[in-house]
Design goal:
Radius of gyration: 20 Å
Largest sheet: 9 strands, mixed
Low-confidence stretches: 99-106
Helix content: 25-40%
Shape: globular
Distance between the termini: 29 Å
Order of helices and strands: HEHHEHHHEEHEEHEHHEEHHH
Number of helices: 13
Mean pLDDT: 87
Strand content: 5-15%
Structural class: alpha/beta
Number of strands: 9
Length: about 400
């Protein structure tokens, strides 16, 4: 039995980290993770015990789209600071396009800069690589069959290894770079990633955000508990913790009068964006309803924060959600962050590297305001950190 399999099958409480999609706004997640890493380092590592990484604390780290990049980096043992440097260097290279390319007749961006940068730090590691220090899950959408795929590294998973000769490509053999490219292949932004799924069939994969799982939290909870996935971690507020980190959200505003005369293609994009946001809100509603959470938020004006509602007699898990609203009033009133209308348009985009510094400042303000040590109960503490992590 491998070290990873021993960890995934060991008794005791389990900890899950879920990371949203959001393009360049993934750096907001990193700013929040920076504080989480600092808090957990104090809790988990006695002085002189060696470098602490989030992979030492979380037993499963998963993400969608930009969240899959961060999830893979953390699972490989990179520090948040190292991933900050990677994002700063990568974003201007990836999100660069000719001024005339709007993604109508082909992808806006070339995937080559992203693929090259990922190969530089990941190399030829596969989803089954022993370089991964913890459980990893990458959410993508197989668009040719219309199905959501969760590529994960549980050695007991049904499709992790070949069951017999000629039975197809095992998930554990999929290059990690290819899995990330699949999860980040947002329609109109990048072309699909094509992955051989058996000896005679190739699947076309796109961004996992084009599904109900732009916030992958509920999918990761199902992965951890449903028997078919073979993790089989039991429910319980002191047995299962899920920490979910967003990339900043906002509710797009469109006037009915303007939409009356908007071309159909742009109305379709608006509807798709709205469906993705609806999926994320539904995920957060279900989890807040089913859990014990120290971070309740008002889900809408009618149901409030579900403080008096419970799905079942007892909470199924300990659930923590960190995110912020990329809206002028919320930033000013909640975080005391003052931002101009021009800058708010900039940070709401998913593909503008000019927003990086603003997004980092917003993310750190969210972390200072909302991330607290008591959100991580003592029941989920760990001992000394395991093996030496990777370095960039």
């Amino acid at each position: 039995m491998s070290t990873l399999e021993e960890r995934l099958r060991s008794p005791g409480p389990k900890r899950i980290l879920a990371l949203d999609g959001g393009g360049v706004r993934g750096i907001v997640s990193l700013a929040i993770l920076e504080r989480i890493e600092a808090i957990l380092r104090e809790r988990a590592s006695p002085p002189g015990s060696g470098p602490f990484r989030l992979a030492h604390y979380f037993d499963l780290i998963g993400g969608t789209s930009t969240g899959s990049i961060i999830a893979a980096g953390l699972a490989l043992g990179f520090s948040v600071d190292e991933l900050f440097s990677f994002y700063r260097e990568l974003s201007p290279r990836v999100f660069r396009r000719p001024f005339w390319n709007f993604g109508l007749f082909g992808p806006r961006f070339s995937r080559r800069p992203l693929a090259g940068a990922l190969r530089d730090i990941i190399g030829d590691a596969t989803l089954g690589s022993d370089r991964l220090l913890t459980g990893l899950a990458i959410v993508t959408k197989r668009v040719d069959s219309g199905s959501v795929w969760v590529l994960h590294n549980n050695p007991r998973g049904r499709y992790f290894a070949r069951r017999r000769e000629g039975s197809g490509v095992a998930n554990g053999e999929i290059p990690l770079v290819s899995a990330i490219l699949a999860s980040t292949a947002a329609p109109t932004f990048f072309r699909p990633e094509f992955i051989k799924v058996n000896d005679s069939e190739t699947g076309a994969f796109v961004d996992g955000g084009v599904s109900p799982h732009s916030d992958p939290s509920l999918q990761l909870l199902m992965l951890a508990n449903l028997k078919g996935y073979r993790f089989e971690w039991p429910f319980g507020a002191d047995r299962l913790m899920l920490v979910s980190v967003g990339t900043g959200s906002f509710r797009p505003r469109h006037s009915a009068a303007r939409l009356r005369y908007t071309p159909s293609v742009f109305q379709a994009v608006t509807a798709l964006t709205s469906m993705i946001n609806d999926g994320s809100r539904l995920v957060q509603t279900v989890l807040q309803w089913a859990s014990q959470t120290p971070t309740p938020r008002d889900l809408d004006r009618e149901v409030g924060d579900l403080a008096d509602d419970r799905l079942g007699h007892t909470p199924l898990l300990h659930y923590v959600r960190y995110d912020g609203q990329l809206e002028i009033d919320w930033l000013a009133e909640t975080l005391d962050v003052r931002i101009t209308p021009r800058d708010i348009e900039l940070v709401q985009k998913m593909d503008d590297p000019l927003a990086l510094d603003l997004l980092i400042n917003i993310g750190r303000a969210i972390a200072r305001r909302h991330v607290h040590v008591e959100h991580f109960p003592a029941a989920f503490d760990i001992g000394t950190a395991p093996p030496t992590p990777a370095t960039v």
